[in-house]
Amino acid sequence: AAIERATALALEICGGRPGPLCHAQGELPSRPSITVRPDRVRRLLGYPIDDAEMHGILARLSCVPESAAAGISATPPSWRFDLSIEEDLVEEIARIHGYEHVPAAAPRASAPMLPLHEGDRSRFDLRHRLAALGYQEVINYSFVPEEWETDFAGRPAPVRLANPIASPMSAMRTTLLGGLVHTLRSNLNRGEGRVRIFEIGRCFLGADADMAVQPERIAGLACGSRWPEQWAEKAAPVDFFDAKGDVEALAGRPGLAFSPGSHPASHPGRCATISWQGSEIGTVGELHPRLQQRHELASAAVFFEVLAAPLLAGAIPAFEGVSRVPAVRRDLAFSVAESVAAGAILGAIRATVPTLVREAEVFDQYRGKGVEPGQKSLALRIVMQDTDRTLTDSEVEEVVTSIWGLLREQFKAKPRT
């Protein structure tokens, strides 16, 4: 009827002569049946569901379920092109039956403990030690301005980013000092007169094509007075030795060696290289006056930057019995050339003296009247002790004589009276 009415309207309006009627009939695509295994449905859903209920759900979805040897055979309707495999029907069964029936069971898995060396330290331990020294942790971006790399790392050609998020963040940092100085200036501009901050983070030393060299470092920066304002201590600014002492306290063990060194960001003559077991691991020093002026710092700041790996690797504690006999102390005063480092003297003594020497430290330094120009006077404390017996006078004198011989032979030391 619709075709006849449309043909009549066309003849009435347009004229012409109708042709023969053609009838075209196609076939809908066949939908193969899908086999659903009830046991697999229950295993995937994680809870029991009856086979009859699965039949009912598939029937309500017009899937024409039929029982088969392998399970349930269901033929999806022609309009459900999203149903093609068994898992699709499992999802439909779960959806119609209700997701609230799926139990919320916690997964069970074995969690073996990984081996951990008894002497190793954690980064939390390093953070805790620095916090105990009065430092506060900061976290800065790894992307820095290129001029920071020139000022604080001496790298006029840093690792540049191909697509930086902002123009002041166009290079990858090779030192943590730039971010610390920026944080220090922000705090000073807001009225903070005494600032101690540190950061633990990675630096990027690789070339443009190789970014595999990413050492983790610990850096600290201190500015202002040595102690908080109080009545018991006079106000004094922090200096190189404060930063050096903080590094030794952070390491928590003897063996760090300090030698005169240089750094692009340090004051000439107020910088030292930090070594551990013969390898250079960092630097400690005072910020260069040029950088203090450029970054608008009212007073001098001291800094340190060391590799984290040597500080994280520790040693297993070893028990030593408490001696029942008193220790013997001898003080040695001598003069040596100004170029001789106290650390070199202590290193030579500790490497050659017998095991009964428990301690060898420099406790005084003097320049002035009674000391020749170009010379300095050092006072050395030697503590000797045996855990089982009292040392004889001859043993003590033998050790003192050997130390005097070492000082004269290697360092041209002269005794002072």
Description:
With 417 residues, the chain is of the alpha+beta class. Helices cover 30% and strands 23% of the residues. The protein contains 12 helices and 16 strands. It has a 7-stranded mixed β-sheet, with helices on both faces. β14 and β15 form a beta hairpin. The longest helix is centred in the C-terminal third of the chain and has 19 residues. The protein is elongated.
Largest sheet: 7 strands, mixed
Q: Assign an overall shape.
A: elongated
Q: Which strand order do you get reading across the main beta sheet? A: 4-7-8-12-11-10-9
| Structural class by SSE content | alpha+beta
Q: Provide the helix percentage.
A: 25-40%
Approximately how much beta-strand content do the residues carry? 15-25%
Could you tell me the number of beta strands? 16
Quaternary state, please?
single chain
